[in-house]
Amino acid sequence: MLDSMDLRLLAALQKDAHLTAQQLGEMLHLSTSQAGRRRQRLEAEGYITGYAARLDPLKLGLHVQGFIQVHLGTHGPDQSAGFARMVNSRPEITSAWTMTGEADYLLHVYCADLPALNRLLHEVILPHPAVARVQSQIVMDQLKRDAPLPT
């Protein structure tokens, strides 16, 4: 069970995962050891699943961001597992969700340019035996970056 101090600690870490136990303690009016123990407990209980650096895609040469809706032609467990393996093998696909509604999957992708996106679509995704069709959208501008979860 989370208390208000846990929620404040989680909110602070989502904004800056580099905060030390001392800094967290100062922010939350706790001792360094109390803040450190709370953080360790939240990690152990799975509330904090990891820490990662956010990279600038443009500086890495990834100039095209897109979303691809995938519609499967067949929906058996073997087809779904094969599609999942393909998705997990492709670094351009940074996130993937199974969906309700018309599309079966929604893929978030980053590519160097439009020809790279075209190759991903026509040489990787569309030839997959389970895929019936795709619909892609290219991101023109991102109004809001992936934000911290509400706490």
UniProtKB/TrEMBL annotation:
Domain HTH asnC-type residues, every copy: 2-63
Signal sequence, renumbered to the chain: none
Keyword Manganese: no
GO biological process: response to amino acid
Listed GO MF terms: sequence-specific DNA binding
Gene Ontology CC: cytosol
Keyword annotations: DNA-binding, Transcription, Transcription regulation
Pfam families per record: AsnC_trans_reg, HTH_24
Gene3D superfamilies, sorted: 3.30.70.920, Winged helix-like DNA-binding domain superfamily/Winged helix DNA-binding domain
InterPro entries (UniProt xref): AsnC-type_HTH_dom, Dimeric_a/b-barrel, Tscrpt_reg_AsnC-like, Tscrpt_reg_AsnC/Lrp_C, WH-like_DNA-bd_sf, WH_DNA-bd_sf
Name under which the protein is recorded: Transcriptional regulator, AsnC family
